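Can you please make up a protein's amino acid sequence together with its fold in token form to help me picture the idea?
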Amino acid sequence: MGEWKDTPLSEVADLLPGYAFKGMDFGVGTSRGVKIKDVQSGVVAVESLDALDVTSYNQERIKKYRLNAGDHLITMTGNLGRVATIPESAHEIYLNQRVAKLLPKSNVIEDFLLYVIKSSDFIDYCITHADSETAQPNISAGTILEYEFALPPEDEQRAIASVLSSLDDKID
């Protein structure tokens, strides 16, 4: 077994906070928008996403907010630290404000990182490190990226993710 190193999330991932689409653009259009309410534990239910009209936006500017199947999202307001994944059935979905997309770096096994951010320790961190608690608690991307966890070598990350995935499959 190799050495496990206390590592801030920022060393292995970046976060892309969502775009501030106008409220009047929801409910119409052929695209869909992921809001805080849509990020439940597990998988984003794409069939229940609100319609979103993106035709009035600069397409070059908003293309980085377009989500793909397999993207992992984290809530930054309300129930902090909830994680959900965009399913294979996703089509023309955009990331709305107060939800962030996880962008793993090449020095981490993505499946292992997903288990790290799904942990109760990560959720507790988000709750106890809220940047503000007005009507709803909020946490910034910067504060989320300060979260520290024990990072094993890549071969151990792969093995841990494999075992946890196998257990998830059995539970399902």
